[in-house]
Amino acid sequence: MSELRPLGKEYIFTSAHFNTVKSLLYQFAGIKLAESKDAMVYSRLVRRIRALKLPGFSDYFDYLQANESEHQEFINALTTNQTAFFREPHHFEVLKRHLQAHPQTKRIWCAASSTGEEPYSIAMVVAEHFGRFNTPIEIIASDIDSAVLKKAQLGIYPIERIETVSDERKKMFFQRGKGAQLGNVRVVPELRQMLQFTRINLVDNFWSIKTPIDIIFCRNVMIYFDKATQESILKHMMLSLAEDGLYIAGHSENFNMFPQIITPVGQTTYKAVKGSVSAKTEY
Ligand SMILES: C[S@@+](CC[C@H](N)C(=O)[O-])C[C@H]1O[C@@H](n2cnc3c(N)ncnc32)[C@H](O)[C@@H]1O
Q: Which residues does S-adenosyl-L-methionine bind (predicted)?
């Protein structure tokens, strides 16, 4: 990487600036930024620099240091939030089968829920299983990014986002927008009420979530963490998992390097290694 690279016309962005961003994002969110992400970092952060009317990146870092409230904006600007309804559909079949086999299921956690498509997909399967919206299952949706959590809570999406959702589910779970909301759909309020939204940073030592958890969906977020961070999160999650609980990972995530913690039971589906760690009591 060159020493001084004006990637955009507006602000000077150097290797030192990029390295500062890398180490701050690692410190705040555990996210390891690849070297190739420099253009992405520039374009996302100039929006903050412009909004704050600051002269450049160094001034932005000073501002970040002086204002703790900017930490969240910094995180929100740099997370990648790609998601979809019923993404990796086989996992929703796993959920359905688990609900059938474990009538005592109480709690499902969607640990990197982004804009809500994933936890609403979970809620649809749960509602279908019970044949009603009012179920005994708590579904907790969390993310580190406060902006995506707000979007998720609204439950409003461009209609194209539900193109791959079956007609039956469209009818049952979505309302078409009118007037200013034309072209959007909204999840029905009963589905929204099935979810609890909360901000959880997975690299924090304490998570404000009740345990035991029967199923943890933690998909497509571990890829951003290094091995040590993954290991510590996995250990914490296995401690939170119910005896027969499942951990569901994303398609490109593989935990074969942690055989002492977690063992595969299907395609990107895992359970805790017996005798390692399992939470049996509520706290
Ligand atoms: C690519 S999205 C995956 C969304 C969804 N799980 C899916 O598979 O469709 C990754 C999400 O992880 C969240 N994330 C990144 N670092 C996090 C952390 N330290 N704690 C909690 N969430 C984090 C991001 O904000 C983002 O919404």
A: 81, 83, 87, 118, 143, 201-202, 219-220
Yes or no: say if 268 and 250 are a contact pair by the CB < 8 Å rule.
yes
Question: Could you give all domains of the chain from N- to C-terminal order, each with its CATH number?
Answer: 4-78 (1.10.155.10), 90-272 (3.40.50.150)
Residue range 53-88, pLDDT digits in tens: 999 999 999 999 999 999 999 999 999 999 999 999
CB 162 within 8 A of CB 85: yes
**pLDDT tens-digit readout, 206-220:** 999 999 999 999 999
Cα of 72 vs centre of ligand 1, distance in Å, is 14
Report the atom number in ligand 1 closest to the C-alpha of 250.
Answer: 8
For the chain, give the secondary structure using H, E and C.
CCCEECCCCCCCEEHHHHHHHHHHHHHHHCCCCCHHHHHHHHHHHHHHHHHCCCCCHHHHHHHHHHCCHHHHHHHHHHCCCCCCCCCCCHHHHHHHHHHHHCCCCCEEEECCCCCCHHHHHHHHHHHHHHCCCCCCCEEEEEECCHHHHHHHHHCEEEHHHHCCCCHHHHHHHEEECCHHHCCEEEECHHHHCCEEEEECCCCCCCCCCCCCEEEEEECCCHHHCCHHHHHHHHHHHHHHEEEEEEEEECCCCCCCCCCCCEEEEECCEEEECCCCCCCCCCC
Q: Is 76 annotated as a binding residue?
A: no
d(C-alpha 24, C-alpha 34), whole Å = 14
Residue 19 labelled as part of a binding site: no
